[in-house]
Each structure stands twice: as structure tokens, then as C-alpha cells.
Amino acid sequence: MSEDRSLPQRLVREIDTSKLETGNVIAFLFICTMDSASTILLPRSWRRNSMLMVNLLAVAGGCLMGFCKIAQSVEMLILGRLIIGLFCGLCTGFLPMYIGEISPTALRGAFGTLNQLGIVIGILVAQIFSLKVIMGTEELWPLLLGFTIIPAVLQSAALPFCPESPRFLLINRKEEENAKEILQRLWGTQDVSQDIQEMKDESARMAQEKQVTVLELFRSRSYRQPIIISIMLQLSQQLSGINAVFYYSTGIFKDAGVEEPIYATIGAGVVNTIFTVVSLFLVERAGRRTLHMIGLGGMAVCSILMTISLLLKDNYNWMSFVCIGAILVFVAFFEIGPGPIPWFIVAELFSQGPRPAAMAVAGCSNWTSNFLVGLLFPSAAFYLGAYVFIIFTGFLIVFLVFTFFKVPETRGRTFEEVTRAFEGQAQDANRAEKGPIVEMNSMQPVKETATV
């Protein structure tokens, strides 16, 4: 996911761009298809082994893209992108769910943020290696795309030493003893009775439910509100404008007057990584909802500053520095909340039964909005100029208001507690819309929240 974003645009000019754009569209459709397919695969699949098997796709896709120039084959590049699209779609479902299921309640948000940290580190590494002095040349750029193989091989070597999800073993496979042993090893304590009992309660509830499909998520009153929240949080990540900044950051910095914009882009990648680490330490202290609102609000202010500075930079040279600063702070606020939180909060809003379908819907929403921003932003920027970021300001304000009124705080609460709260809202549909959320956000968790 990371290296493809950082491929220098000058290096693809020699490629038949019409074919490449077609490949982009097909790859996007493949991502969404495979993300939706995880609805079928996830409930039945061993979490660890599934991640191990999909690494074969990363190796295959990386090989095709890495050797496409030697073979003088645009088709190999497109096929490689298709396979990487398949890989990304499946990973979008597998990884956040596995992390959420092996994490203790008190640290679930912090561990969930590690998923985003891995993504931003990958982006930063790809940005650095795409420099002309390293691999950003016409001869070496295919090898940069082939780097997908390296993390896949490393993960394949490490996964056999990782435990299977204890929730999957107990709830889906009824292997209580194995689940108990894994929990004792993960938690470092022999007393895991409370966690086992919570899983048993969820298993009993799941046995009384029919298998939840994507359509059922929207039909059932119990699932409708959490799935809408999940979709909106995913949209808040992509429609915030962050990918517009990263896809076209070099051009934006150039317009702002930076002589070597590629280095400013790498600087944004460094800020991206640093503030993901900051979020790692804040998410269990401040909570998901609070950090998400802080991030959205800060990004809205920065997008306004970016617009003003781009409009005035020709009249005032110092406005270029304001624009650069606004972009860097924009990225920082993104990683405080909208960057990591939507990836793992979906798993927190659903029990074991509907969780796979919910992850698929949320992931497809994320990839769809990501694709649309990348597709439409150049045209919007051409016609609107600096005012294009006002569009994102509007989205950010809408998502901020939605988060304030509709998104519950899940910090320190078990999956069962969150599920019961939504079911309680569904049973009393005549309440005012704000009332249930206030009640849920004021609900005291059973366990004390640990700090990182």
C-alpha cells in the first residue's frame, strides 16, 4: 500500500498511461471485491494462517511489478497491481481484526494504532527510497515496487511465532483450553477467568444469532447505528484530504515556492510517523472520540490556512512558510485521530458474529473514498485552484459534528459492553437521538483503563 503511493510521477511517463489508468480502476475494484469477500472468509478462517497465506499474493505481485520493465510489459505491471489490490483488500480485513482480538481491553486502542504506524513507516521508507539518489531513477523504479516482497517475507517468518486469536479459538472453534493458554501467555498472568467468561458470554449470544450478512447490518436496528458510525469514520479518514496532500504533495510544495519539494514531502512523512507514535500514547488516555474530534478540528483549521496561504503567496513571500507549516500540522492532526482510529474502532463496535461483515463494509468504504479522492482531486484542483481545500474543510466540519453527536467512547469497554449499549438503544427507538449517545459515553467500563 505504501510504495505505490510514493512512485515518482516522472517515472511513469514512459508507460502507456491509458493502460495504467485502466489498471488503477481494475485494481481498485479488486480491492473492494476482496475486501467484501473477507465477509465470507473471515468468520471461518484462522486469523494467523490467513495472514500467512495472503503474503504469497504480495510476493507474486511484487515480482510482477519488479520485473515489468525488464520484460517491457505494461500488462505485467497491471497484473501485479491487481494482485497487490487483492492482497490489500484481504489485509484490510485480517490485520485490524487480529490485533483487536489479541489485545487486552485496556490497551486495545494502543495496539490498534500500531497498524497505522506500520502503514506510515512504509510510506516514509518508500518516499526516501524514491529519491533520485537512491532508487528514483528510470532504471531502478521497478525494484522499488518490488520491495513489497521484503515485508511479506519478514512477516511470513515472524507469524509462526505469533499466537492464534484466543477469541477465534473459543468463540468460533470452541477450544477453551487453547484460548486460555494463549491468554495466559499474552497477559503474563494465570488468572484470565474474567476474559474467558466474557468470551463465553459472547459465544452464547452468537449461538443464538443467525450469521450476519452485509444486508442484515443495515436491516437490523441493533447493527444499523454502529455500521453507519463505522462508515462515517472511514469516510472521515479519506475525505479529510490527507491523501490529496500525500498523492500530490510534491506539486503542492512546489506551488508554495519550495525549491526541492521532494524533501518537504519526506518531511511530511516524518511528521506523519512521529505523530502516529504520539497517538499511540494518547489513545488510551484521552480516548478515541476525543482524539478524533481534536484531529478533525485541527485539520479543518489547517485546511483554511492552506487555502489562504496559497492564495496570498504571490503577494507575500512569507506565506509560503505558512503553507508548509499548515501542511505539516495538518498531517500531525490527522495522525492524532482520523489516521489510526477508524481502522480499529470498527472491531470495537461489533461482537464476534457481525464483526467480519462490518469490517468488510467499512474497508470497502475506505478504499472507495480513497480512490475517488485520487481520481477527482486533480480536476478539482485545476478548476478551483487553492480553493480546492475548502471542500475538505466542509467535510471535516460535517464529520466533527457527527462525531460529537453520534460516536460513542469505547475506551476501556469490552466488546460485550459496547454491543449491549447499542442493543439498548435499539430497544428504545423513541428516545431522542442524542440521548442514547450521552448515556453510552457516560457508561463506566468494567475494567480500569491502563496507560501505555
UniProtKB/TrEMBL annotation:
<feature type="transmembrane region" description="Helical">
    <location>
        <begin position="262"/>
        <end position="283"/>
    </location>
</feature>
<dbReference type="GO" id="GO:0042995">
    <property type="term" value="C:cell projection"/>
</dbReference>
<feature type="transmembrane region" description="Helical">
    <location>
        <begin position="140"/>
        <end position="162"/>
    </location>
</feature>
<keyword id="KW-0812">Transmembrane</keyword>
<dbReference type="InterPro" id="IPR003663">
    <property type="entry name" value="Sugar/inositol_transpt"/>
</dbReference>
<keyword id="KW-0325">Glycoprotein</keyword>
<comment type="function">
    <text>Facilitative glucose transporter that can also mediate the uptake of various other monosaccharides across the cell membrane. Mediates the uptake of glucose, 2-deoxyglucose, galactose, mannose, xylose and fucose, and probably also dehydroascorbate. Does not mediate fructose transport.</text>
</comment>
<feature type="transmembrane region" description="Helical">
    <location>
        <begin position="357"/>
        <end position="377"/>
    </location>
</feature>
<dbReference type="GO" id="GO:0005886">
    <property type="term" value="C:plasma membrane"/>
</dbReference>
<feature type="transmembrane region" description="Helical">
    <location>
        <begin position="383"/>
        <end position="405"/>
    </location>
</feature>
<comment type="similarity">
    <text>Belongs to the major facilitator superfamily. Sugar transporter (TC 2.A.1.1) family. Glucose transporter subfamily.</text>
</comment>
<dbReference type="GO" id="GO:0033300">
    <property type="term" value="F:dehydroascorbic acid transmembrane transporter activity"/>
</dbReference>
<dbReference type="GO" id="GO:0043204">
    <property type="term" value="C:perikaryon"/>
</dbReference>
<dbReference type="InterPro" id="IPR005829">
    <property type="entry name" value="Sugar_transporter_CS"/>
</dbReference>
<comment type="function">
    <text>Facilitative glucose transporter. Can also mediate the uptake of various other monosaccharides across the cell membrane. Mediates the uptake of glucose, 2-deoxyglucose, galactose, mannose, xylose and fucose, and probably also dehydroascorbate. Does not mediate fructose transport. Required for mesendoderm differentiation.</text>
</comment>
<feature type="transmembrane region" description="Helical">
    <location>
        <begin position="290"/>
        <end position="312"/>
    </location>
</feature>
<keyword id="KW-0813">Transport</keyword>
<dbReference type="InterPro" id="IPR045263">
    <property type="entry name" value="GLUT"/>
</dbReference>
<dbReference type="InterPro" id="IPR002945">
    <property type="entry name" value="Glc_transpt_3"/>
</dbReference>
<protein>
    <recommendedName>
        <fullName>Solute carrier family 2, facilitated glucose transporter member 3</fullName>
    </recommendedName>
</protein>
<dbReference type="GO" id="GO:0055056">
    <property type="term" value="F:D-glucose transmembrane transporter activity"/>
</dbReference>
<feature type="transmembrane region" description="Helical">
    <location>
        <begin position="78"/>
        <end position="99"/>
    </location>
</feature>
<dbReference type="GO" id="GO:0046323">
    <property type="term" value="P:D-glucose import"/>
</dbReference>
<dbReference type="GO" id="GO:0005536">
    <property type="term" value="F:D-glucose binding"/>
</dbReference>
<feature type="domain" description="Major facilitator superfamily (MFS) profile">
    <location>
        <begin position="1"/>
        <end position="411"/>
    </location>
</feature>
<dbReference type="InterPro" id="IPR036259">
    <property type="entry name" value="MFS_trans_sf"/>
</dbReference>
<dbReference type="InterPro" id="IPR005828">
    <property type="entry name" value="MFS_sugar_transport-like"/>
</dbReference>
<dbReference type="InterPro" id="IPR020846">
    <property type="entry name" value="MFS_dom"/>
</dbReference>
<keyword id="KW-1133">Transmembrane helix</keyword>
<feature type="transmembrane region" description="Helical">
    <location>
        <begin position="111"/>
        <end position="134"/>
    </location>
</feature>
<feature type="transmembrane region" description="Helical">
    <location>
        <begin position="318"/>
        <end position="336"/>
    </location>
</feature>
<feature type="transmembrane region" description="Helical">
    <location>
        <begin position="25"/>
        <end position="42"/>
    </location>
</feature>
<feature type="transmembrane region" description="Helical">
    <location>
        <begin position="54"/>
        <end position="72"/>
    </location>
</feature>
<keyword id="KW-0966">Cell projection</keyword>
<keyword id="KW-1003">Cell membrane</keyword>
<keyword id="KW-0762">Sugar transport</keyword>
<dbReference type="Pfam" id="PF00083">
    <property type="entry name" value="Sugar_tr"/>
</dbReference>
<keyword id="KW-0472">Membrane</keyword>
